[in-house]
């Protein structure tokens, strides 16, 4: 009986999988063949072009291409000041921007100081980059759907059919599990788990797919790509060359032909932990951030003293044991056993204790701009038992390399990158005892962008990476420790 039940469950599940594969084959993206090479630019924006020519998956070039398009249209300017510094200058208040163009424009404006921001600093800001990117992507998809170029892979009829039919194998699996369990209590759990698994598999095969009109538009733009690929040497052009090439450079970026310009405009890229841009002192500059080893660094003075004593004990005691053995064989004088062991222990325990006492009696005041706030998991524990190390790097405007210092989670939490702060800290132990915000960061409200509601739209990211089941993070993948990079696909 048990064998029959599981055989029936396997058969019904197999039939559901065949239905899923049949619908997947029927709803695949249309084949696109490149049209004849042409210089004619169709009315689609660079971001929409990126979507339809990338297999209906939005690539990370789309954000940079959008900013280049804004520059080509005179909304902003891109100026190359030197080999290591280029600037984006806000030129005029634009009207009638598309929602995703407004998203990019507002981010650049939030970073600008007196209307100017370094191109390398475009990755800065206190955005939830996951939600920001999701909102950008869905706004682009909304426009593509409005133009008849794109649609969801699963229609409501497809999703309803697959969901309803999935209940059958789930029920049969539940019956089989119930028969197999001598207590007859496993059926409901097995049915729920199998039903959720089938829906998750359905979600993994979901995605945005092109229409016939979208395929025709993509063919045209692949023809434009062929033309641009033979002219202009766009791969070598910096972002500032948009003043010469205009919108052609923006479309070249969207089509994967201008990697140098795209890399120099990291709007959709997470900020580098170890390389920050600061405007402290009035001029944009790079600050290299170090995270020193925590052997003696980044600990409260009391903890440093205790660690020093423990380290002294665990080196001094084994040394005493070895010297006692050596003296027994006449290799080491008996009278020098204890003094030598004490000397070794004090040599190890002395530096951290002296550093801690020095910082307790003579702390320094550090004043500057917070350029990096990070927290890293301390050890291997996760979940509710996770322990974190909290780091804060402050640019004082005197050096291009800054050593991040540690502080408590209570002090770290209310801080934001860009805050002007005054901190009382120990230079030798790297521990911040007190910190106050002198001037709040202008980036504190950068995440409060105007979201026009596209984040509520059912727009799966791409084939093989989406879910039908409700997303527990409906507003986008939030990064609680502000360290995890949010990555999306780069065009090959």
TrEMBL record:
Residues 467-492 are annotated as: Disordered. InterPro entries: YciQ-like_C. Keywords: Membrane, Transmembrane, Transmembrane helix. Pfam families: DUF2207_C (PF20990). Residues 44-262 form the Predicted membrane protein YciQ-like C-terminal domain. The chain crosses the membrane at residues 6-26, 159-180, 186-203, 304-330, 336-357. Coiled coil: none annotated. Signal peptide: none annotated. Residues 468-484 have a biased composition (Basic and acidic residues). This is DUF2207 domain-containing protein. The lineage of its organism: Bacteria, Bacillati, Actinomycetota, Actinomycetes, Streptosporangiales.
